[in-house]
Amino acid sequence: MKNIEKLEKLIKEQHGTVLSSDLTRYDIPRTYLSMMVAEGKLEKMNRGVYASIDSIEDEMYAMQSKYPKLIFSHETALFLHGLTDRTPYEYAATVPSGYKVVETLSERFKIYYIKKDLHLLGLCKVKSSFGNQIMAYNVERTICDIIRSKSRIDIQIFNDALKRFVNKKSVDYTLLMKYAKDFKVEKKLKEYLEILL
Fold first, then answer.
1. DSSP state of 36
2. What is the pTM (predicted TM-score) of this model?
C-alpha cells in the first residue's frame, strides 16, 4: 500500500483526525501531511493535530493522544457514560499530582489533580462522540469523583447524575464501595444512596 493510501485509510479510521505521531507509528513520512495540507485535504488544527477538511476535529481524542496522562473524568465522564445529557462546556480531566499542564490545555480543560497511586484506578476505554477510542474513568469511580469534588460541579448535573446512576443496571456496588473508601467519601456516598435507593 502506498504511503498516501495508508494515510487516507488512517484518517478515515480515526474519523477525520490524524496526529503527526500517528505517522511515525505507521512508518509514513511526515511530508505526506504537508502534501495533504497543500492540496487542501487536511487542515492543521493545533501543533501535531490535523483534521480532514470535511470533518470536525475530535478534540478529546487529539488532546489525549498528545497528553496520555490526561484521563477524562467528572462531568465529561458522566456525559460519556450517559449519566448526563448536558454536553460539557469545557472538558474535565484528571492528571497525576506533579504533572505539568501546559497553558493551552488548562485554558480549555477543567483539570483535577490526584495522587499518583490513585490516578489509574477505574480506568476504562470509551468512545468519543466521533467514535474514537479514549480513556475515561468507569461509572463507579466517576460517582466517587463527583462526590469528592461536589463544590466544583453544577448542582443540577450532580443530582441528575446520581438519580441516573442508581437506575443503572450494570453498577458494581462492591467496586463502588471500595473506591469510596479509597477516596474517603464512603460516609457521603452512603448518605446519598440511602436517599435515592
1. H
2. 0.81
